[in-house]
């Protein structure tokens, strides 16, 4: 068979048409040259080809072919016609219109209708590629013999209304039947009309007789359901009579009603497939045509059974149709309806035009249905497959290259999912050919490589579809079948049953159409009609629900021919195009390159815009946001739907919006670029910092005006950059810098305070030491015994040294404690202790100072202390005592200057942490979470957990709210004047806070300016058993007591810092600021004469006794020691405690008052309360500038020397810049001070 098919491929279409005996011609529906139109406006029949049968019939050819053709009368072909010329001309116009027209029902371009009667000929037409129209004519048959009876024909002829019946052996005589009107109905045989005066729809009266003779049939069985039917029973009727109908819902045949018998006889006599579905079970009765054309293998078991069982595959679809027809009684008609039937061992794709007609069986109710199905599967499949062939031709006609051709082939096959369940297309090229679509010159398999051009239904990377295959050596995919198809060069059928279609290669394919896997596939070795080489392999799956029969073979043959023809056209076109393209190829390539570059640049710009971290925008001159990338909307929170004038400014804060309006004016009005940092409103999602808190959203907006060629403003384009983290980092950096600066300032302040506090007593120490050394040296040189005043002077100097050392020691202790706390080296030592006893010891330690300052102390043991029996608990008594000492020290310090001097200490207990509600305004300082509480270890015992609270309330000056905020911080005091007025380093409360937190507690304060303060803290403790009475640890001194006591000389408490605070309130008012040297004092041994240093260094005309000095010093010890030393050498010394008192004294001097007190120099401290030294000296210099200073009628200058412990260069420079004449740094000796005074500061002052 293969060789026969190969032989057919050599045939030409012209040879086939010439062999056809029917007159046939071909016309071009889309000619390249436009033909002239006739007067009637209908295209002429200009044939591009006429076969031999038409060309030999010259009259027919001349009458219908050509521009001058005028049509043909039937008499020109046959003698029997009476058609006139006018009718012929009209028919020819209709014939031309039909032959050149196309169907209006679809886009196939086919002829409609498929046939046409003209000039006693039946003409049929078909269209190829929507262009070539083939028209063939068939002569109508005429019966010239005598008429015969219909009853003389065979049953098939009678049933189908055949045009001629065989003559029966016995001739019946014509019978005449008299009608009531006397008319005889003659029995005449039917014959085709010999004259056509209109269309097939013409219902006009016929000139022929329509009377027939109705008699008993000679062969057919009138009623096959009767007990003894007469006539010849067909095998199917005999089978139907053998059915045991009594076992079916229909009952036995003798019980069938006349109406049902009539329907059953009608069904069986119908030459077309027909069936009756009777009763609610739809019991089936069908004729022979139904069993052959519809039932298939379901027959004979189908007869007498219900429809839903044997046709279960159809019931889901037909069941509702039965139900609707039974409900409404309206007949149902379906055309080309898809019905999947399993009748030949497979679920088959079939199409039927069928109808359901209700049967009433002589009643008023529907008893069953009459079904008349016509199998239209061949027509539907043929139309579908032809549509695929046409679609393939249309698609491939668009291909310009072979490479495009492969894609178009797959596109053409894409729509027919049922006949193309899957497809693979491999092009064949040379092994080293980079263009897989190119054709090679040879056919040697060893040089071929298959490249996958595409697939339908096969996933990428599937086992059956490798990208490249070696046609000789590879065993992958379908290469073995490809080699066989290349050898035969014919479509090859593959089967799963014989292994040629491996099932392993079918796994994972996405089956199209019905979704059923294919059992067969076809390989098309594609080669052009004008070549011998196979250039591709097309593998198509066979429809799993259709047998691969002759019609399927015809479809594959047409498909193969269409591929070959289309491929040849494409290859010819490609060759022709290649030859014509050489001239313009360079320009085309350059244009393509430039286009690609432009597209690439545009694509890159689009991608850059979308991938850019910048928010890009384009705004119209009216302020409407025209375009923006996703990042812009993401950063700003602006929605794409909201686009009105200046809507894009809604995401800015009010301040930034005002800035933006100014920038918009610059952009639109001045048409100048503009950039600024803008703050956004809360964005979503908000950026967060390291601790998870949201930060402000900031963007850097950079914009430029886009100008048209005429200089007009076209748009504003720009971008926004998220600088939120940058702004946050800058803010963080600024805060860190400020914090670092503040830390440095605090450290410098602490260093200054520490240096000041350490150096301040050193001057007193040095001067007291000099005093002792001078006195002892004098006694050693003199023979006279030591007098009592000298001894007292030495003792007083020694005590002063002791006090200064103790002051320095307390500062060093605080610094060491801070260091241990920062390094977590300070550990608590739990000891069984009595809290009340610790409180008593703390007060006893300050007893001498309390008495000296006339301060009363009251004990307040709260009832809760005894209620919870907390007389013995486990705590660190030394650290608790340290906290109490710090609080009592502050209380004494701030209470001493007050009018009412009262300190109240309170002790309370509780089982839970005490709150702040017991005292109005009391607040605990938030605890430092980094400070671990050390009271829960085993060393503290297992006793009940208790909380002890200590309060120290004073009647001092109190604190303002801003001053309270500064407490409990490192290096911090209530105010800058606190140190100047009361001293201290600002570490005591900070240490107390950390020690309280180490005990698992907190510290707090309640204070109001002018009403005193209450400092309180609570600690965590555990109840414990009391120590034995004889236990030496019971009354042993605490380490801090020993540390603070030391030698007996260290038990002295520091004296007040201020001179005015050292005296009682009554004596303060009478304190004399000026102390002059009296003659008696000069002669007293307690006040020796000026030292040889003064006598040696002073000019001969100036003696120390003539020098008047004002000492401005707030520290009592330094003040007393310095005054003592200066007076000891014979100077007149006055004392002031601060700058205000200094200015008051200056008003009494000769500088401001004629005849006033003489003043040679002012020795001024810097750190003082009320008015510091720098402020005071600036005021003095202001007075000098105003001319208020007068000495002997001339302008005067007041010599002022700074005496301070602030010795850093910037501090010295600040002092000089404020107006100090010189600076003496502490510690100093009197000779050093005298050098400063003798340096030309006072010698030119005329003695008064």
Automatic annotation (TrEMBL):
<feature type="region of interest" description="Disordered">
    <location>
        <begin position="1038"/>
        <end position="1096"/>
    </location>
</feature>
<dbReference type="InterPro" id="IPR011006">
    <property type="entry name" value="CheY-like_superfamily"/>
</dbReference>
<dbReference type="InterPro" id="IPR036890">
    <property type="entry name" value="HATPase_C_sf"/>
</dbReference>
<dbReference type="Pfam" id="PF26131">
    <property type="entry name" value="PAS-like"/>
</dbReference>
<dbReference type="Pfam" id="PF13188">
    <property type="entry name" value="PAS_8"/>
</dbReference>
<feature type="domain" description="Histidine kinase">
    <location>
        <begin position="753"/>
        <end position="1023"/>
    </location>
</feature>
<keyword id="KW-0597">Phosphoprotein</keyword>
<dbReference type="InterPro" id="IPR003661">
    <property type="entry name" value="HisK_dim/P_dom"/>
</dbReference>
<protein>
    <submittedName>
        <fullName>Aerobic respiration control sensor protein arcB</fullName>
    </submittedName>
</protein>
<dbReference type="Pfam" id="PF00072">
    <property type="entry name" value="Response_reg"/>
</dbReference>
<dbReference type="InterPro" id="IPR035965">
    <property type="entry name" value="PAS-like_dom_sf"/>
</dbReference>
<dbReference type="Pfam" id="PF02518">
    <property type="entry name" value="HATPase_c"/>
</dbReference>
<dbReference type="InterPro" id="IPR000014">
    <property type="entry name" value="PAS"/>
</dbReference>
<feature type="domain" description="Response regulatory">
    <location>
        <begin position="1108"/>
        <end position="1241"/>
    </location>
</feature>
<dbReference type="GO" id="GO:0000155">
    <property type="term" value="F:phosphorelay sensor kinase activity"/>
</dbReference>
<dbReference type="InterPro" id="IPR036097">
    <property type="entry name" value="HisK_dim/P_sf"/>
</dbReference>
<dbReference type="InterPro" id="IPR005467">
    <property type="entry name" value="His_kinase_dom"/>
</dbReference>
<feature type="modified residue" description="4-aspartylphosphate">
    <location>
        <position position="1165"/>
    </location>
</feature>
<dbReference type="InterPro" id="IPR004358">
    <property type="entry name" value="Sig_transdc_His_kin-like_C"/>
</dbReference>
<feature type="compositionally biased region" description="Polar residues">
    <location>
        <begin position="1044"/>
        <end position="1075"/>
    </location>
</feature>
<dbReference type="InterPro" id="IPR001789">
    <property type="entry name" value="Sig_transdc_resp-reg_receiver"/>
</dbReference>
<dbReference type="InterPro" id="IPR003594">
    <property type="entry name" value="HATPase_dom"/>
</dbReference>
<dbReference type="InterPro" id="IPR050956">
    <property type="entry name" value="2C_system_His_kinase"/>
</dbReference>
<dbReference type="InterPro" id="IPR058846">
    <property type="entry name" value="PAS-like"/>
</dbReference>
């Amino acid at each position: 068979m293969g060789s026969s098919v190969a032989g057919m491929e050599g045939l030409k279409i012209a040879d086939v048409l010439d062999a056809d005996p029917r007159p046939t011609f071909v016309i071009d529906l889309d000619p390249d040259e436009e033909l002239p139109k006739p007067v009637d406006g209908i295209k002429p029949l200009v044939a591009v080809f006429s076969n031999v049968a038409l060309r030999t019939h010259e009259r027919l050819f001349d009458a219908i072919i050509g521009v001058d053709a005028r049509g043909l009368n039937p008499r020109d072909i046959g003698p029997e016609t009476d058609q006139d010329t006018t009718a012929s001309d009209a028919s020819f116009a209709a014939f031309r219109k039909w032959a050149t027209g196309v169907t209006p029902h679809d886009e196939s371009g086919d002829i409609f209708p498929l046939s046409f009667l003209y000039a006693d000929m039946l003409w049929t037409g078909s269209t190829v590629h929507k262009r070539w129209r083939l028209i063939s004519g068939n002569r109508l048959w005429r019966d010239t013999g005598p008429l015969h009876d219909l009853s003389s024909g065979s049953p098939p002829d009678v049933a189908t209304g055949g045009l001629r019946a065989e003559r029966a052996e016995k001739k019946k005589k014509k019978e005449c039947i008299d009608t009531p009107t006397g008319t005889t109905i003659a029995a005449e045989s039917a014959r085709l009309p010999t004259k056509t005066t209109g269309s097939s729809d013409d219902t006009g009266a016929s000139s022929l007789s329509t009377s027939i003779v109705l008699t008993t049939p000679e062969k057919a069985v009138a009623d096959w359901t009767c007990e003894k039917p007469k006539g010849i029973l067909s095998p199917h009727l005999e089978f139907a009579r053998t059915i045991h109908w009594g076992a079916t819902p229909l009952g036995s045949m003798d019980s069938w009603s006349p109406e049902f018998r009539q329907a059953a006889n009608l069904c069986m006599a119908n030459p077309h497939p027909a069936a009756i579905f009777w009763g609610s079970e739809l019991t089936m009765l069908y004729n022979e045509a139904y069993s052959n054309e519809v039932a298939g293998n379901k027959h004979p078991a189908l007869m007498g059974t219900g429809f839903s069982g044997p046709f279960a595959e159809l019931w889901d679809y037909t069941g509702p149709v039965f139900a609707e027809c039974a409900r409404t009684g309206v007949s149902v008609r379906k055309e080309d309806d898809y019905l999947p039937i399993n009748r030949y061992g497979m679920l088959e794709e079939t199409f039927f035009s069928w109808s359901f007609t209700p049967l009433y069986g002589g009643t008023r109710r529907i008893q069953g249905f009459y079904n008349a199905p016509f199998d239209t599967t061949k027509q539907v499949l043929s139309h579908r497959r032809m549509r695929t062939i046409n679609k393939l031709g249309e698609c491939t006609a668009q291909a310009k290259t072979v490479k495009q051709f492969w894609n178009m082939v797959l596109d053409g096959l894409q729509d027919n999912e049922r006949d193309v369940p899957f497809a693979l297309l491999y092009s064949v090229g040379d092994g080293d050919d980079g263009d897989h679509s190119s054709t090679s010159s040879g056919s040697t398999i060893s040089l071929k490589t298959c490249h996958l051009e595409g697939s339908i239904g096969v996933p990428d990377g599937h086992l059956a579809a490798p990208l490249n295959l070696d046609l000789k050596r590879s065993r992958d995919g379908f290469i073995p079948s490809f080699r066989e198809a290349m050898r035969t060069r014919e479509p090859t059928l593959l089967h799963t049953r014989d292994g040629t279609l491996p099932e392993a290669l079918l796994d994972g394919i996405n089956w199209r159409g019905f979704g059923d896997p294919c059992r067969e596939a076809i390989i098309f070795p594609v080669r052009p009609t004008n070549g011998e080489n196979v250039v591709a392999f097309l593998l198509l799956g066979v429809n799993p629900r259709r047998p691969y029969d002759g019609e399927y073979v015809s479809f594959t043959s047409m498909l193969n021919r269409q591929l070959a023809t289309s491929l040849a056209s494409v290859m010819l076109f490609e060759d022709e195009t290649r030859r014509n393209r050489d001239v313009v190829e360079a320009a085309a390539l350059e244009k393509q390159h430039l286009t690609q570059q432009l597209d690439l640049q545009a694509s890159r710009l689009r991608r850059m815009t979308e991938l850019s971290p910048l928010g890009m925008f384009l705004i119209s001159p009216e302020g409407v946001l025209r375009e923006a990338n996703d990042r812009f909307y993401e950063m700003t929170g602006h929605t794409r739907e909201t686009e009105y004038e200046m809507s894009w400014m809604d995401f800015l804060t009010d301040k930034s919006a005002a800035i933006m309006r100014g920038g918009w004016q610059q952009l639109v009005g001045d048409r100048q670029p503009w950039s600024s940092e803008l703050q956004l409103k809360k964005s979503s999602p908000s950026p967060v910092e390291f601790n998870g808190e949201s930060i402000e959203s900031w963007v850097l907006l950079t914009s430029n005006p886009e100008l048209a060629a005429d200089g007009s403003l076209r748009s504003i384009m720009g971008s926004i950059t998220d600088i939120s983290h940058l702004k946050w980092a800058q803010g963080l950096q600024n805060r860190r810098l400020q914090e670092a600066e503040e830390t440095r300032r605090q450290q410098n302040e602490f260093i200054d305070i520490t240096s000041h506090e350490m150096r301040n007593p050193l001057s007193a120490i040095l001067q007291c030491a000099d005093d002792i050394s001078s006195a002892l040296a004098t006694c050693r040189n003199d023979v006279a015994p030591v007098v009592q005043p000298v001894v007292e002077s030495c003792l007083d100097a020694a005590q002063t040294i002791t006090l200064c050392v103790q002051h320095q020691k307390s500062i060093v202790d605080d610094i060491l404690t801070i260091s241990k706390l920062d390094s977590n080296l300070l550990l608590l030592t739990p000891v069984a202790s009595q809290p009340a006893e610790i409180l008593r010891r703390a007060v006893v330690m300050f007893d001498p100072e309390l008495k000296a300052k006339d301060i009363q102390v009251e004990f307040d043991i709260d009832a809760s202390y005894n209620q919870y029996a907390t007389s013995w608990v486990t705590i660190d008594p030394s650290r608790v005592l340290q906290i109490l000492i710090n609080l009592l020290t502050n209380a004494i310090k701030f209470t001493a200057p007050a009018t009412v001097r009262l300190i109240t200490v309170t002790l309370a207990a509780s089982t839970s942490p005490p709150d702040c509600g017991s005292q109005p305004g009391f607040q605990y300082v938030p605890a430092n979470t980094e400070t671990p509480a050390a009271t829960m270890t085993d060393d503290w015992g297992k006793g009940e957990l208790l909380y002890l609270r200590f309060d120290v309330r004073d009647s001092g000056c109190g604190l303002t709210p801003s001053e309270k905020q500064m407490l409990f911080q490192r290096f911090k005091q209530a105010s800058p004047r606190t140190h100047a007025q009361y001293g201290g380093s600002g570490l005591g409360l900070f240490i107390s806070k950390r020690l309280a937190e180490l005990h698992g507690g907190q510290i707090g304060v309640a204070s109001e300016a002018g009403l005193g303060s209450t400092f309180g803290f609570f600690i965590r403790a555990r109840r414990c058993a009391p120590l034995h009475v004889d236990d030496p640890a019971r009354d042993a001194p605490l380490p801090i007591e020993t540390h603070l006591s030391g030698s007996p000389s260290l038990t002295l408490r520091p004296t007040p810092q201020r001179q005015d605070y050292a005296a009682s309130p009554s004596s303060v008012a009478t304190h004399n600021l000026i102390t002059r040297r009296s003659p008696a004092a000069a002669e007293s041994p307690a006040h020796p004469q000026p030292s040889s240093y003064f006598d040696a260094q002073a000019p001969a005309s100036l003696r120390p006794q003539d020098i008047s000095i004002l000492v401005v010093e707030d520290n009592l010890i330094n003040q007393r020691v310095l005054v003592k030393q200066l007076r000891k050498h014979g100077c007149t010394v006055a004392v002031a405690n601060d700058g205000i008192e200094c200015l008051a004294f200056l008003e009494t001097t000769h500088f401001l008052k004629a005849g006033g007190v003489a003043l040679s120099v002012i020795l001024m401290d810097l750190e003082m309360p009320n008015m510091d030294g720098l402020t005071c000296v600036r005021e003095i210099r202001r007075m000098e500038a105003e001319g208020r200073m007068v000495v002997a009628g001339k302008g005067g200058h007041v010599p002022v020397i700074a005496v301070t412990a602030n010795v850093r260069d910037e501090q010295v420079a600040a002092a000089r810049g404020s107006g100090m004449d010189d600076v003496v740094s502490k510690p100093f000796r009197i000779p050093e001070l005298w050098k400063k005074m003798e340096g030309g500061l006072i010698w030119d002052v005329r003695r008064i």
